[in-house]
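Table S2 (continued). Query chain:
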Amino acid sequence: MPMLDLDQWVAKLVEEQPFILVEGPKDKASLQKLGLENIITLKGKPLYKVVERVAEETDACIILTDLDAEGKKLYGRLRSDLQKHGVKVDDRFRHFLFKETDLRQIEGLFRYAQRQER
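Corresponding output:
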């Protein structure tokens, strides 16, 4: 598969509307501005409840926790729990953000994407 740039990734995600898990409301707002809709925030909810809800509603999702130490730890736990419930975790967009951008907070994604268009 050819390497996608950020705009192509966003267009693909908007078209597919996958389930996306984010840490908080600012992350969710940033993704909504990009046109994404199936976003679940983790803030204030027990992880097992989020995992159960996702497992009931879909068999695949994307985890976009922040790309810092805390976000990586959260990502690891979520991914493991979701996989135990039979949910496939699609890491490709997360890996793209980590390798191809200097973005580390998901709440900055909308602004970052706008800057890339110029």
